[in-house]
Amino acid sequence: MSAQNESARSYWRENLRIIMTYMVIWFAASYGCGILFVDELDQIQFFGFPLGFWFAQQGAIYVFIGLIWAYVFSMNRLDEKYDVHE
Amino acid sequence: MSLDLLTYIFIGGSFALYIAIAIWARAGSTKEFYIAGGGVPPVANGMATAADWMSAASFISLAGIVSFIGRDGAAYLMGWTGGYVLLAMLLAPYLRKFGKFTVPDFVGDRYYSSTARTIAVICTIVISFTYVAGQMRGVGIVFSRYLHVDITTGVVVGMIIVFFYAVLGGMKGITYTQVAQYCVLILAFMVPAIFLSMQVTGHILPQTGLGATLDSGKTVLTTLNELSVELGFDQYTQGNKTTIDMFFMTAALMCGTAGLPHVIVRFFTVPRVKDARISAGWALIFIAILYTTVPAVAGFGRVNLIETINGADSNGVEYTQMPSWFKNWEESGLIAWVDKNGDGKVYYSAGNAFEGGKPVFVEGVGDSGERLTSNATANASEVYVDRDIMVLANPEIANLPDWVIALVAAGAVAAALSTAAGLLLVISTSISHDLMKRTINPSISDKQELRYARMAAIVAILIAGYFGINPPGFVAQVVALAFGLAASSVFPVIIMGIFSTRMNTQGAVSGMVVGLASTIAYIVYFKFMGGTADQWWFGISPEGFGTVGMILNFVVAMLVSSVTPPPPAEIQAIIEDIRIPRGAAEAHVH
């Protein structure tokens, strides 16, 4: 029982670490590039867009999609590793 | 074929499809009614979630907002998509594992408290009604503009259709109808966008078309910036809102999105925990197709609008030369023109053309045949254009074929109906399940509960229809409230319920009360009691205050729970259990 508990705990710890990593990217793409540093990034041209404007209106959304799917794959692997998959 | 006939065919055909699906997918049990039996494949669920999420506001209003406020529109674009990352990582899988029907189910069970459950029920109902009123109104506008029936008839037809598939089919009927509605609405949004992009830039993809270089050698955005500055507006690609307000507003919309009951409940309908994550991924892809197109539609639409109204030489165009869409929307009161300098030419520039922003129409017509108004301002701008017409009028402004215009009308109706149905289901579930079954009379049978659910859905449709016909003036204002409430109450309480084993009833209830009270007080003060922008705390607008309410909720809940007893052992066992995916299927069998 306690071994199982220990495994559940470390599964949860790894899950939290994955979440934290992805949340940092989530924050950087949207609040970072799209809001906080938008004016600085606007100095750079990107396929006809000022880069900050592009992040704010399109780029952040692409990053969001990538993050969810990355999380799907990371968690599928983690579930198998700890044998908690369905 | 005339535009009217085409519009009847497109809207009528789509309605026939929805009804056929509803009859095919009737619900037989409460489980089918509430969560479609928990057996919806993730791709279908993702599509249904996208249709559920993209309301009349996303379809009709969003491009208009972005078109008129430029870069600041990003708060909505990022806010209404970034919430899905939170859902996929922080909420959906665990709520699916928990395996009940509703958000109040989770709050009530996790915090072993009927007080917490009741607060969650009230939030759910208030948020959902706020939303649904706007949807019925959207249906009414489309019907009155394109089918020339009055708004009341439009709303009644919409009510009957929703009644059919929401009341008969429950979640099962709604889900499969929404899959069809997604297809209709995305087609209706993308076809004119692609046409526009091809016309203006030669790019097939509107997403890249917005960055294209025009024949003049300048990019679309540079052209837009120059046009805007010439007319006295701010540059299109520059922000107007303060950084702190953008930050808080985006956060409130993101966390609010993740806390909306009608979005969360979608993740109860999939078979497995991993499917909850996958369907969030699909949902965001389907949503992003529209959301990444919105900036392009907004940009092209604005260039076209300015050039059509002001003419190639930017000196204005004679009213008598205006295309028919201008006069049609003037008829609907969403466009107005006053000939301030008496030259007979329509001219659009920065500043409100009318006192208070909106025109007040009076009887009679002016020298050029325009509708007369009584509240013109002294500045040079002569035209009022309602933001909400951008998407609907775009195909007409760009001279696209009639079938595209009819398709857009059908898409707007699909967007409004799919969201209305999802919301009505949440309202009826809250009443039959959370109030009747779990709070008032736990002994009712499955059959009786289903009957209550259907009755509640009927009553909810009637109330929604009433608001659609007699819209309260505050619909636009209360949308901020819906997201604020979700961000400051539902979202934090669920997060803490999953990620903290220490969080207890006292903490959750006091956190929700403080979060709700502060958010409601701030929004009511600034939206209804005449508070002005210079009194905003740290420059945070009412739209962004949900974030502050959320932070207060977290802080108060942590403080209170640290000085009160921890939750009982069986609750801690539940939390340990929802963190592990395996066993979700069994937990669901009754």
UniProtKB/TrEMBL annotation, chain A:
Record-annotated Sodium symporter small subunit domain positions: 9-85
Top-level taxonomic group: Bacteria
Keywords: Membrane, Transmembrane, Transmembrane helix
Coiled-coil positions: none
Keyword Transmembrane helix on entry: yes
Transmembrane segments: 20-38, 44-72
Name by which UniProt lists this protein: Putative solute:sodium symporter small subunit
Originating species: Marinobacterium halophilum
TrEMBL record, chain B:
Ranges annotated as spanning the membrane: 6-25, 75-95, 116-134, 146-167, 179-198, 246-268, 280-300, 403-431, 452-469, 475-495, 507-525, 545-564
Pfam families the UniProt entry points to: SSF
BP GO terms, sorted: carboxylic acid transport; sodium ion transport
Highest taxon of source: Bacteria
A Gene Ontology molecular function term of the record: symporter activity
Record-linked CDD domains: SLC5sbd_u4
Membrane topology value: Multi-pass membrane protein
Keywords: Cell membrane, Ion transport, Membrane, Sodium, Sodium transport, Symport, Transmembrane, Transmembrane helix, Transport
Subcellular location: Membrane
Entry GO terms, CC: plasma membrane
UniProt similarity note: Belongs to the sodium:solute symporter (SSF) (TC 2.A.21) family.
NCBIfam families: Na_symport_lg (TIGR03648)
Protein name as it appears in the record: Cation/acetate symporter
Source organism: Marinobacterium halophilum
Taxon lineage: Bacteria, Pseudomonadati, Pseudomonadota, Gammaproteobacteria, Oceanospirillales
